[in-house]
Amino acid sequence: MLKGTKLQKRQQKQINDGRGQGSGKDYLPFIQAHDNKVASEGWLTRHLGWKTQRIHHTLSSHERKYLYFLEWIDTVVDIREQFPLLPLNRTEEIAKQLGIKHAHVDGVPVVMTTDFLITLRTSQGLIDIVRTVKPASKLTKRTLELFEIERRFFVEQGIDWGIVTEQRMPDIFISNVEWMY
Known about the structure:
With 181 residues, the chain is an alpha+beta fold. It has a single domain, classed as Trna Endonuclease, Chain: A, domain 1 (3-Layer(aba) Sandwich), CATH 3.40.1350. 34% of the residues lie in helices and 25% in strands. The chain has helices spanning 4-16, 61-72, 88-98, 141-156, 171-180; strands at residues 45-48, 55-58, 76-84, 104-105, 108-109, 113-122, 125-133, 160-164. Strand 1 and strand 2 form a beta hairpin. Helix 2 (61-72) crosses helix 5 (171-180) and helix 3 packs across helix 4. It is globular and about 45 Å long.
């Protein structure tokens, strides 16, 4: 694991390198599948997006399946995965207000990310929504605490936030899209 200053320097380098910035083809995920020590379920994958024409980085099989689902939905015009919640001090403030411990590695606060920032075309124009993807069995007390920080962060910005579990994903539909991929 990365320790204190080294972790902070790595995260600042990610920001300086443009990670978590841009849109469409120009977006760079904050966390990428080839990053060292990425916490995942062993399903680190990279896929060329049909909508964005760039490589998408997913960190779990559930994220990968949800990406396939999003690729097929006509109203989805942009998909930004591993989107950072910046500035870090805002999520730290939210955690403090809630009386819970911020996401950290060895006591050093880390930049939190959400699974998907999605841009939709609606009759009122383009809107962004945020979806985090997690198996229902992994919705522990600690995970829900971190999700509450995330939810409040995006609600402050007027962005709809929600959790997607496997029960909300159409398996046969996703399998068909995966097969076409």
